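Page 37, top half.
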Amino acid sequence: MGKGNKSDFILNDENDVVEKELSSEANQPTFDINEDKIFRKYANKSLPLNKKKSRAGLTPYQGAFTKKHKTHLLRRLTFGSTLGNMQSLNGITADQAVDAMITKNAVAPAPPINYYENFYPDSALVPYGQTWVGAERYVGSTRAYRIYSLKGWWLDNMMHQDMTIEEKMILFFHSQYPIEMYNASGRPNFQYHHVELFRKHCLGNLKDFVKELTIDGAMLWYLNGRVNTKTAPDENYARELQELFTVGKEGNTFNEPDVLAAAKVLTGWRTREKTAASPTTPWEVYFSAGSHDTTTKTFSSYYNNATISPDNSNPAGYGANEVDDLVDMIFTHGAQDIAKLFVRRLYRFFVYYDIDATVESTIITPLAQTLINGNWEIEPVLKQLFKSDHFFDVANMDCIIKSPIEYFIGLFRNMNFEIPATATHEHRGSFFQRLNNNYLALNSQSLGDPPNVSGWPSSYQIPFFNQIWMNTDTAPKRMVYTDYFMRSAGAYVRPGVYFKIDLIGLVEDIELTLAPPVTSVSDPNVLISEFVDIFLGVGLSQASKDYYKTILLSGQSSDFYWTFAWNDYKANPTNVTFRNIVETRLRNMFTEMLRLPEHHLA
C-alpha cells in the first residue's frame, strides 16, 4: 500500500495509490496473520466454550416478528437489509418471511459482457456490450478482463438481488466448493458455467450437485481431472471429493486406497474449447473411453468394501457411468458424515461459528437427519433452520463478523446505492472491477479466488473462524475504503467518472418508511436512531447517539440546528447552499458512524 497518512490516501484523486489499477490479482500483497501480534493477543485462543450461548432448539419460532428480527433475517439470508426489503416484510410472520426468501430470484441474470473493449480490445472480437460467454478462447490479457467481467457480473448480481437467499447461497457454495479463477483454472467460459452450477443447485439436491461438480469443466481444470488417465491416475480431485466436499477428514473414514480407487473411477473426463482454429467446437466436457481405467475398483470397509466397474452397455463409452456409481456409493455409506459436515458448514456460515456439544446434538444432528430423510434436498434443511427458535434467539444475533463481500455489498445495499442510469457498460464494469481488485482483494477476499481448495480460512480456521477477517491489516483498510467512498467527490471509476452515495436521497427514503407517531427525519434523534438500526449490528448507548448527533448539528447543542437545515432544504431542494449544508453534515456524521466496530457485525 505504501506509506502516507490516511487523509492523503483518501483525498488524492486518480493519481493516488487506491486509483492505480493493480497489475493482477495474482500479485496481491499478502499478509501473515501469524505475525499480527494484536490479532494474536485478542482473537480466540480456543473456542469460547464458556460463552453464553443459545439453548433454543429447532422448534418453530412463534414470537413477534419485530424490526430487529427482520433485520437479522435479511442480514443473514441476503447482503444487507435494504429499506425496500424491510417494507416488504411488514404484515407477515417470520414463518411467511422465510418461505418468501427461501426461493430463487424471479429472473436469472443475463451473462457477463465485454465492458472493457474501449481500453483493451477482446482478442476474439467480441463486440462491446455483448457477452463473451461461448466465444472462442482468448489470447493475451483478454483472459484477465473476462475474469474481471465475470467477477463484476457476480458482484452486480449480489448488489441487485431480489429478496431471496439465492445469491447468498451461491457465495456459500463457492466458499465450500471453490476454484481459483485467476490463479488456477484459467478458462472464463468454464468458470461462468461453474457459478451457474451453484445457481442451479443451491436450493436443490446435494447429491445431484456433487455429481455435476465432479465433471464440471472449471473443476476439471482446477483439480487436474482433465489430465487424469488410466496410465497416470491423478488423485487430486478424488482426494478433495472425499476429504473436503463430502465425507470430511475427521473420524474413521476413507483411506488412501479409496483415494486411488476413486481416481481410477474418474479417469477419462476431458474438456473441449472453441478456438480460432476450431470455431465450431463448443465449450464442453466429454468422456474419452480410451483414457479410462476399465478395471474393477474396490473400496475399503468404510464403503462396505463396495466395487465399481464399467457398464459395458453404456453408449457413452465404457466407464462414463462410474461417476454416478462413485457418488452414489459415497452418499450411501458416508451419509451421516456427509450430512453433518454440510450442515455444520451451513450453520457456521449463516448462524455462528462455535458448535459445542449441545448445538451438535440439538441442531446439527436433527438437521442432518432432515437432509438424509429428504433424499439430500437442501431447501427443507434451510427452512427448518431459519424458522427455528434457535435462529431467532437473541444470542445468535449480531455475533458474526462480516466478510469483506458481506461488508461492502451490504453497505451499498443499506445505503440504497444505485449506479447512475447514465453509466455506460465500461463505467459499470470498471466500478465492479475496482470493487473486487481493491476493496475486496486487499481485504483478503477476492471473489472467485479463495487462497486454496479449502476456501477462505474463515470457514475452517479453528479457533478464529470469522474473527480472521479483522486484523491489523484489514481493519484499517475497511475504514479507509469506507471513508473514501463517503467523500464529497464519490468513488473513482474511470478518469473523470465518479460514483457517489446519495445521502440526502437515503434520508428521504428513510422518511418514507417512518410510521406515526414518528414521521419526520427533521428530528435528529429519529434520524440517528434509524441510522443505528440500519447500519450497526449492535445498538448504541444514548451517550453515543448524542455524540453522533453533535456531528449532525455541526457542534451545536440544540436539535433545531438540524431541523432548520433539513426543513430549509426540503422547502428549497434546488438551493445549492441548503443542499450542501445538509449533505456535508450527513457525510461527516455518517463517515464517523461507519468507523464503529459495531458496523462490522451481522
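Page 37, bottom half:
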Amino acid sequence: MELQDFADIEKATKRGRREFFRLGLGLLFVVCTMIYTALGVGVTGTQGIMLVVASMIGGYMAMNIGANDVANNVGPAVGSRAITMTGAIIIAAIFEVMGALIAGGDVVSTIRGGIIDQSAIASNDRFIWVMTAALLAGAMWLNFATAIGAPVSTTHSIVGAVLGAGVAAGGFGAANWQTMSGIAASWVISPVLGGAVAAGFLFWIKRSITYKPDMVAAAQKTVPILIGLMAFAFATYLILKGLNKIWKTDFLTASLIGLAIGGLTWSLMAGSIKRRAANLSNCKDSINSLFTVPLIFSAALLSFAHGANDVANAVGPLAAIADTVMHGHVSSKAGIPVWVMLVGAIGIALGLALYGPKLIRTVGSEITELDQMRAFCIAMSAAVTVIVASQLGLPVSSTHIALGGVFGVGFLREFIKTNYSQMLDEIKEHHPGDDKEAVEAFLNRFSKASIQEKQEMLEQLKAHTAQADLSKRERKQMRKVYRHELVKRSALFKIAAAWIITVPVSGLLAAMIYFLIFGIVHA
C-alpha cells in the first residue's frame, strides 16, 4: 500500500478511535468502582453482589449527569465566547468535585423526597431492587437524551425512575402523588421563571446601556451595579444551597452576608470599570468585554453549587442501597459514605470531560446566539430564580431554569427586533413625498436617539399623518412580515418534548427493569 493509502485509512478511523477511547475510559471507571466496592466495602453474599452492581450503575449514572446536566452551568459562557470549551470543562470539573466533597449533602432521603412509601415495599431485597432499577433507568434515559442533544432534568429523571420502580414493587398506592404533582408543576414554573428573570435582566441592560447614545458612560454606572447584584445573588445562593452541610444558617443571615459581599464587589468594580472606560470604544463589543470575568466566576460558582446539591441525584439511590445492606433495614434517612460521594463526584467530572461538549454546544450556541451580556443574564437567572423559588416553596429544576433563561433572552430579542423593524417601516411610510436622503437622515437620528427621544419622534410623525384603519387580520399578517426568528424552533420543540416525557419514560423503564430483576431472582 502507498503512504497516501495509510493516511486516508488513519483519517477515516480517527473519529472511531476517539469514540473508542471515550468508551474505554468510561468502562475503566466503572470497573474501578466495581473492584473498590467488592474489595473495600467488605460486604459479601447476595446483597453484597447487589451493592457492587448498584455502585457500577451509580458510576454510570454520574457520568451521564456530567455529560448532560453540567452543560447548563457552562454552556452560556462557552456560547458567548467568554471562555473556551477546554477551559469550561476544566473549571466545571474542578468545582463540581469541590462542591460534592466539601459541601455535598451528607444526608439524602432514601425515598427521594417522599416519592414512594417505604412501608409499601415488602422487604429489604425488594427495596434494593427498586433503587437499582431506578438508578439504571435514570442513567439510560440521560444517556439517550445526551445522544440526541436534549438537555433534560437529572432530578426529574431519577424521580420518575424511583416512582416507576416503586409503583412496580408496591402498587399505585406506594406513590406520593402530591409530591409528583409538585414536580409536574415545576415543568412549567422552572422555565417560565427562568426565562422571565433572564429576559428582565437583558431588557434592563438594553434600556440602561446599549440603547444609550454614550454606552461607555452608561456602562460605568450600570455594570458595577449588575456585577454587585450578581455577587449578592451568588453569595446568598451558595450560603443557602452550597454550604449548608458545613454551615447552616437562615435566609436573613445569608441575605445580609450576601448584601455585604455584593456591596463590596460593587465598590471594587466601580473603580475598575472607571479605569477601563478610557480604553473602551462606544460599541456593544466593548461593553460585552466587561462581562467576561463575571461569567467565568459564575460558571465556577454554578458548578460548585451543582456539585454540592445534585451529586445526590447520582448517588442518592446508591447511598440508600449501601445503608440498607450495611444496617440490614430500610432507614428513613441514609448517610452518604465518602466512597459513594467520590463515585458521584469523579463520575460527573469524567462524564463532563468525555461527553459534555455536545450538550455544552447545544445550550451555548444551537438554541439562540449568545453574547456575554445575554449569558450574564442567564447566569443571574439561575441564581436568582432558585433563591426566590426556594423561599416561596416552589418546586423548580436548575436545568429547566437555565434553559428557560436561554429561551427567554432569545424570545426577547425576537420581540425587540420585530418591533424595531415595524418602527422603521412606519417611519418610511410617514415620509411618502421626501427624497431618499431625507428619510435616511431621519433614520440616522432615530437610531442614535434615546428611548424617550425615539418615542417622541414617532409620536410627532403620527400626529402629522393619519394611520390606515386596518382590520385585526391585516395587522396579524403585517406582524408576520416583520417577524424575526432568533430562537431555533426545532431545538425548542425537541427539548420541550424531552422534558414532558422524562418522568413517564424513566418511570416505565424503571418498572420494566424492576420486573426483569424480580424475574431473574425468582427464576
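Margin note: The chain is about 80% helix and 0% strand.
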